[in-house]
Automatic annotation (TrEMBL):
Protein name: Excinuclease cho
PANTHER family in the cross-refs: EXCINUCLEASE CHO (PTHR30562:SF10), UVRC/OXIDOREDUCTASE (PTHR30562)
Domain GIY-YIG: 210-288
NCBIfam families: dnaq
Reactions catalysed: DNA(n) + a 2'-deoxyribonucleoside 5'-triphosphate = DNA(n+1) + diphosphate
Signal peptide residues on this chain, from the entry's feature table: none
Enzymatic class: transferase
Alphabetized GO MF terms: exonuclease activity
One Pfam family in the UniProt entry: GIY-YIG
Nuclease found in the keyword field: yes
Domain of life from the UniProt record: Bacteria
SUPFAM superfamilies cross-referenced by the UniProt entry: GIY-YIG endonuclease (SSF82771), Ribonuclease H-like (SSF53098)
EC identifiers of the protein: 2.7.7.7
Length: 481
């Protein structure tokens, strides 16, 4: 642990700063731990350095040891984070938290304090973004690029104090290199607005619409990272940048964002359906929940010769639409797990649910006193059928409430029939066609573009159940038969 004064503050300072750098066991803000921290305080009293190794209480991966030079032996006798937390917060409080790629360092430190029950909240200044603002003619703004560009002397890259010193030297050089007003205006601009991803130009945020639609996050080489939707795109996008301190996935994604594009829609339903379609088409790296499933499975009940209802796991596209479907599952394994859990909870017989076969004496569950005795004639077929239908009731898909297809019209302004709208053609929970326009929708044209081979989609089903059974004030439902 070290603590000593160095040179005087750089010219033009108008606020106390704490320049911070950390080393960690990896890049996950929620899983990995801090192994070293350095803080350079800059205020009216001058400039002071402090640093310490930290025992992360977990092994340091060999790759990280090689990169930083910090070994398990070095941190074995170092203090734990909670033992230096008071020292750290004393040095950070009432100062602007400065770091090169501030979201990384602040994210780790804020999470470490959160584990101790302390809600850390500081003004942030990112020197990556400051470099972009002051030196837009350069493409690279990583610490290594800045060290090389300005000839900054450093003797221990990827050690916290050395990197914090390099960041401090960059501030000194930039303050001397640029007119005082230019430098401080850039600093103030960074601390006034939300902390954006380091690779994202602020002008992109300013251009985001505030209405409903779908937004797309792009990384290097125009790679699509994420697709999302909102009734207020700008507000939702900014919320991503507040959340990344608490989520390793969100932080990793935000570090990679270089561009944001949008598609405005007439309303929330249009945004929901477009988001689902775009995710399934493009398979963005950070979207998991809505990714397309090549095959969905459902459970249907079929009556055997004894009148006993037996569940069958079946490809949803081959399922009989006239029979009730129970659940939409990503795979047969998930469907079987549902049946197994159902059997245990409702006393159902293995011979019907888990290991289908004839009733030839007590099944394994009966021997374990879980089956209520269909296989031993202690329970009737009617009782078992009733229990099975009750057990699967929560998984049952809603019945399509119309004789045929319906149209839903989403109006941008429900009080103005001439405002832009989107018309959707739906049947049996499938989206057959959609069209945008103004005035009265062209129903014949909508029908002509109908995709009669449209397949049942789990996410679209979930959206449509809400709006078909209870349309909102901006939606008009029109039966077409």
């Amino acid at each position: 642990m070290s603590d000593h004064n160095i040179a005087t503050p750089f010219p033009g300072l108008d606020r106390p700063l704490a320049i911070v750098d950390i080393e960690t066991t990896g890049g996950s803000v929620t899983r990995d731990r801090i192994t070293e921290i350095a803080i350079i305080e800059i205020d009216e009293r001058g400039v002071r350095e402090w640093s310490t190794l930290i025992n992360p209480l977990v092994p340091i991966p060999k790759m990280i040891q090689s990169l930083t030079g910090i070994t398990n032996e070095m941190v074995a006798s170092a203090p734990r984070f909670e033992q230096v937390a008071k020292e750290i917060v004393t040095r950070l409080q009432s100062k602007t938290f400065v770091a090169h790629n501030v979201r990384f360092d602040y994210g780790f430190i804020r999470n470490a304090f959160a584990e101790l029950g302390y809600p850390l909240s500081l003004e942030l200044l990112c020197t990556v973004k400051l470099s972009r603002a002051l030196y837009p003619e350069h493409k690279r703004h990583g610490l290594e690029a800045i060290i090389q560009r300005f000839g900054i002397n450093t003797d221990a890259r990827h050690r916290a104090l050395a990197d914090a010193r390099a960041t401090y030297q960059f501030l000194r050089i930039a303050a001397d290199d640029k007119p005082g007003e230019t430098f401080m205006t850039a600093v103030q601009a960074q601390t006034r607005r939300p902390s954006l991803p380091p690779g994202l130009e602020p002008a992109i945020i300013e251009q985001l619409p505030t209405g409903p639609g779908v937004y797309y996050f792009y990384g290097e080489n125009n790679n699509l990272l994420y697709v999302g939707k909102s009734i207020n795109i700008r507000s939702r996008v900014l919320s991503h940048f507040n959340a990344d301190r608490a989520s390793a996935k969100a932080m990793a994604m935000c570090q990679q964002i270089r561009d944001i594009r949008t598609d405005s829609t007439t309303g929330e339903l249009s945004a929901l359906l477009l988001e689902s379609q775009q995710i399934k088409t493009h398979q963005p790296l950070y979207n998991r929940r809505l990714r397309r499933l090549s095959t969905l499975y459902t459970i249907q009940l079929h009556e055997d010769q004894q009148g006993l209802l037996r569940p069958e796991i079946i490809d949803v596209h081959a399922a009989a639409r006239t029979s009730k479907m129970y659940g939409l599952f990503a795979g047969q394994k998930k469907a079987r797990e549902t049946l197994t859990n159902t059997a245990k909870a409702f006393g159902l017989c293995d011979c019907v649910v888990t290991t289908p076969g004839p009733l030839r004496g007590p099944c394994m569950s009966r021997q374990l006193k879980r089956c209520k005795g269909l296989c031993t004639n202690d329970w009737s077929i009617l009782q078992h059928n009733t229990a099975l239908m009750d057990a699967l009731g929560s998984e049952a898909l809603k019945a399509w409430p119309y004789r045929g297809p319906v149209a839903i019209v989403e109006q941008q302004n429900p009080n103005d029939n001439e405002s832009p709208h989107t018309a959707f053609l739906l049947d049996n929970w499938c989206l057959l066609a959609s069209a945008h326009g103004t005035g009265e929708p062209d129903w014949e044209q909508l029908k002509a573009t109908s995709n009669n081979e449209a397949l049942l989609d789990r996410d679209i089903y979930r959206y449509l159940v809400k709006v078909v059974l209870k349309p909102g004030k901006d939606l008009t439902l029109i039966p077409l038969q």
